[in-house]
Write a structure and sequence with these properties.
The chain has 408 residues and is mainly α. It has 16 helices and two strands.
Length: 408
């Protein structure tokens, strides 16, 4: 264990931080963060529709979801190059890069050419087009980043700055749009399905038990090491969003979706820490009792950063049960949904801050509540012996006048 911890500290941790701070990765992370409010609006419509099932006379607001969550790929196409250019300090082209990426994306989604214009398949603008939007954004960023190193004008040119920016942007804009025009319109190359096919093995693997287990466990391990799971958002978010869209629109049965992870697995936050918060309320040590009182509110709303960074991160006593719970909870939930004991969610619901049992009801009705209760009890049983061990350790330290492990 000591060797593993040392390796994670000295090798994996620094390298992961370096990757997370890379302008290209950080740009994609920022773009995904910015679309979350649009996803949440779609989730509110899901709650509204639950109410509408009992009061069918109230207005149908489904179109609001179509023009928020249903356009997230279009938003991503703009935001990725915008934020990459921001991180690359190319501020003068970040808006142009975003608009150019939208142009490329609009070509890439294979519009049907009509005599009086183009006909677009609306579904491609939603989560189904996420990977295409990401590729469009990255390609645009590459072209814009290279072109930013060159200019038609000398630095001492008397030409106004905004005029120079206009002319310097002409060639990269033309290259970006020309590539899309050549491939899709002239050569009739199905760029959309080609990009989707490239990522299909990953999306298919995510819906298997080994895939779901790894894609949940690995970020959980990193989280227990103090590295936010948001590092994995550029990979996990497109997979989860496209999967729930397929469930809602095509009757698919994808299980690795946010609606399952947030509502049925990550009770109290990633790692299933909600039972630990309740256990800490009954701690004998002053440290854990105070931490429990501080963290119980956020934990009920599935915010567990205070608990993770206050007690779990780099603490082997509590890291181990966190990993075990990740494995056990994913296993139980996956097979419960796979064999049909609990219905698989088929509506967008990403209000992760909704209390656990209410989430279970909203995504899978009464069976969801029962499964949530099962996961909660099992997680509590796993946490308990490790919690007692750590509580006794803290109690001994307090008795010896040691306030923190670092003072030993």
């Amino acid at each position: 264990m000591d060797r593993f911890m040392a390796w994670m500290t000295d090798v994996v941790g620094p390298k992961t931080d370096k990757i997370a701070q890379n302008p290209w990765v950080a740009g994609i992370q920022d773009a995904i963060n910015k679309i979350l409010p649009m996803i949440l609006v779609g989730s509110l419509i899901t709650i509204y529709n639950v109410v509408r099932n009992y009061f069918p006379s109230i207005p149908d607001l489904t179109s609001i979801r179509s023009y928020t969550f249903g356009l997230i790929s279009l938003f991503i196409a703009f935001l990725i190059p915008y934020f990459i250019m921001t991180h690359k300090k190319n501020h003068n082209v970040k808006y142009i890069a975003g608009m150019s990426s939208i142009s490329l994306f609009m070509i890439a989604v294979n519009p049907t050419v009509l005599d009086n214009g183009y006909l677009y398949q609306f579904d491609y603008f939603g989560a189904g087009g996420m990977f295409v939007a990401i590729v469009s954004g990255i390609f645009t960023s590459i072209v814009m980043n290279i072109s930013s190193k060159y200019s038609f004008f000398k630095e001492d040119s008397a030409m106004p700055g905004f005029i120079r920016q206009w002319f310097d942007a002409l060639i990269p804009i033309f290259i970006i749009v020309f590539v899309g025009w050549l491939l899709v319109i002239q050569l009739n190359f199905d760029l959309y399905n080609a990009i989707v096919s490239i990522f299909k093995p990953l999306t298919n693997f995510a819906q298997t038990f080994p895939g779901m287990l790894l894609l949940y466990l690995i970020p959980t391990i990193f989280y227990s090491l103090g590295i936010s799971a948001w590092v994995f958002a550029p990979i996990l978010t497109p997979i989860a969003l496209s999967a729930i869209t397929a469930n809602a629109e095509a009757g698919a049965s994808n299980i690795f979706i946010d609606e399952v992870v947030f509502a049925l697995i990550a009770l109290g936050g990633r790692g299933g820490t909600l039972p630990l918060s309740f256990l800490m309320l009954k701690a004998k040590s002053r440290k854990l009792k105070i931490l429990g009182k501080t963290c119980i509110g956020p934990s009920i709303l599935n915010i567990n950063e205070p608990l993770v960074f206050g007690a779990i991160a780099w603490n082997p006593i509590l890291m181990i049960p966190m990993w075990i719970i990740a494995i056990v909870s994913v296993s139980i939930v996956y097979f419960s949904l796979k064999i049909g004991i609990v219905p698989i969610p088929n509506e967008v619901y990403s209000l992760w801050y909704t209390p656990a049992f209410l989430q279970g009801f909203l995504v899978s009705a009464l069976p969801g509540i029962i499964l949530t209760a099962v996961i909660f009890v099992i997680a509590a049983l796993i946490w308990y012996p490790f919690f007692k061990l750590y509580d006794n350790k803290c109690l001994e330290q307090e008795a010896a006048g040691i306030e923190d492990d670092d003072d030993e």
